[in-house]
Amino acid sequence: MDDRPRNGKLSDRTKAALIQWSLVLVFSGLAVLFIVNPWRQSHLLYPIPLVDKSFLDPAPNRRSYADFVRTKDEDALSDFDCYACHENGKPPTLRYDAQQHLIIPREHSDIVMGHGEQGRNNNCFNCHDENNLTLLQTRDGRFLKFQDSPQLCGSCHGPTYEDWEAGVHGRMSGYWDHSLGPYTRLPCVNCHNPHSPRFQGRKPAPGPHLLHEPASAPVVAATH
Amino acid sequence: MPLPDASLHPDETPAAAGMSRRSFLRTSAVLTTGLAALASSLRPLLELDDYTTVQRFMQKYYKEMTPADMAKVLKRIEDEVQKQYGIRPHVRDLKPMDGVQFVYCLNLTRCIGCRKCVHACVAENNQSRNPEIQYIRVLRMPHGSLDLDKADHDYAPPTVPEKGYFYMPVQCQQCKNPPCVKVCPVHATWQETDGITVIDYDWCIGCRYCEAACPYWARRFNFTKPEIPKDRLNPEMAYLGNRPRRQGVMEKCHFCIQRSRAGRMPACHDVCPAGARKFGNVLDPNSEVSYILRNKRVFIQLKEELGTSPRFFYYFDV
Amino acid sequence: MIRATRNYLVFLRRCFAIAFVGDWRYYLWMGALTVLVLLGLNAYAKQLVHGLIVTGMSDQVSWGVYIANFTFLVGVAAAAVMMVIPVYIYDNEELHDLVIFGELLAVAAILMCLAFVTVDLGRPDRFWHLIPGLGVLNFPASMLSWDVIVLNGYLLLNLHICGYLLYCRYQDKKPAKWFYIPFVFVAIVWAVSIHTVTAFLYVGLGGRPFWNSSIVGPRFLASAFTAGPALIILALQIIRRITEYHITNKALLTLRAIVQVSMLINVFLLACEVFKEFYSGDLQVASTRYLYLGFHGYHALVPWIWTAIVFNLTAMFLLVLPLSRSLRWLNLTCVLCIVGIWIEKGMGLVIPGFIPTPLGQIVEYRPSLNETLVCIGIWAFGLLCYTVFLRMAVPIMQGRLARANEDLPAGELGPVAQAASQHS
User: Do A220 and C296 touch (CB under 8 A)?
Assistant: First the structure.
């Protein structure tokens, strides 16, 4: 019960009382702080734009003759009405420039020839029948309708054609269990432009976003 | 009054150090304000809406549910999704088919790195857009090396594919010997008879041990409430598949279980513009995947030396 | 029977009451700790509402300071047992009465471990899924299921041993050997096992080559048996200062010997690890390279690990020199040990395991403010528990809180130092 200060310092009991009262203050202050909650974590997320719906589209790259027929696309089908311009019975003449490059006529200017390296496949009539422009011809003497073009492609690209027939080259969408539903195997021209078959580059969909937006980039840029 | 014990100091007798009214007041003040601070420290919990309900809290483990239990749970899920998104979904509990073992083959010659598979998966499986969850990660690798240390995750050139690189999409490999299944403390993830490793989202405790264990970085965690735009919700759902998940649970690729167990191809497969992906039942000798495994030469199973025996076979045509 | 129950309840009530009574230093300490606990609780409430996005963790680095602290504290809990071995196996008299302080530290450490694991869970309301019988426990396949069992078992073991010994002392009865000695020996083995199981949590993951190494288990134990006794050396000195409990310097020096040997082994194992990772130049060392040297421009952990290594090496040299026999140097050495091992076992083990990810991506980790507040809150809670345990145990061991004086209110027992100053 010794409350008198000794040597000018506070006694232990006074100190204890002081600390208890300061605790009362601190706890009350804390309680107010928690209720008022000045630290608001409002920016937990940073904006991430929704992906463009074109990246969700499962439609193939191109449309084939069979697609035009099925959808009755008159505009596209008119491209296949060869004898609207060409004379019946008269095979068209091909013209080449000084470097042996095929000169594409003005009327077919949408065609870019690029089938084969170094312009090897430079002759329209390697695939088209010059005597009947509505048909395709193979090197081994078969004549094919436009809808059957895969057989033409396969006549040169054998292993790929085999894979395609098995459903392994190109996409076979729909049902893996063929007994439960339909599956679609697309002809070559739905992905490859027959005049310039190499896959075109395309813009990739946006890359992944991190959970926490990085505050800074690394000091040295990644070497890969 | 009992005699003071001789071992006590004289000042510690009852008479000497009795509780005065002031010290009692002081102590109660400390206790009261302390309790007030304790109560108010929990104030953020007022914002906890829909954390759990009695039904969800008591929900049984998937494998212990009877069909009647499951029917109730499916209806509850449909009600909850309708309440949150305004669309009534169709949630089913699809069982594995007999005689089916799924396998995924991926042609690394054909993949152009367009990332359409990533986003088709997100759309099909109702993944959170913000924060972003994507089951598939496409890696850009330099020609000649499978060293994942050289992988670029963030490539964004104007066009793909780029010369000198090939692209490798990685998702859950549905391993035959899955490390994630081994480490889960509550069996919330397991492999089903058709080969798909599934997660019971209502059983997972969110410890993230499976995420640490996966050698393919295939598992994702919901760090907060997932956000799915209402107009992009896919209402065709499965219990173990693409039904919307909640904060605090794991998720991952499940081979589009709502599609594959109905006989359909997964979403990533059907959107690929290059036809690089092949999916099917390896037990069926006429399936595309059986053809590939029979006829193609070199197969890469990522990190096969770890003994996980993944169901994903990467191969090259040329 | 009823009398025995009544006596026990009175004992518990008195222990509870004495926790609220003390001198001004006690109120200051407990008050400060309470403030920290409340801040941590508030931060955790925010985490419950918003999810673990309030931490610095991500899918790339999915375990952070919570699990780092958990790993360190399991080691501390295991090491409390280090005092038990000399006493019960080698009949060391000096340490005999101090064993209980080590075991109480183990209890506090286990409580902290359980708290750290709980705050790390995404769905803590589903903890009942872990209870075998009610939920589904993936035992024996999952090492986490082993951890759940061994940690809770260790807690119960130590609670039993401490509780029984303290209650016997309170009653001034000689404890029945069969009721605690077998448990003590089980606790020795169990302590080694809790830390080995925790090590195996990491070692068993083939997809993380940084962890998938046989040296992790021995390293865990060596570092635990360095940091744990170091903590106890500091704690015993504080107890001696505040309560004038009889603790000889010889006891402290025995503990020093344990820390000395363990630190030597720890540094040796570190050298083994570093040699293996860097000498052959193989490609699996990305994580180690990131930790010690930085990798691809990312180097956040490099200053931390080198600080830890400097601390550990300095501590090792000090321990080997007779200089550390003096208490001032010993205390500095202990602090160096504890901090160095906390860094190397926490951030030096858990974080590099995730960088780079199994697919080669590097995303760094920094604990957020919320996460740090929760950690501080749990540490404060642990210290609060340990202080309360000591506040109960020391008077009992000194005979001042005993069945004989059960009618005395708690305020009249007080720490010896307070009574001494009041008297003069």
Answer: yes
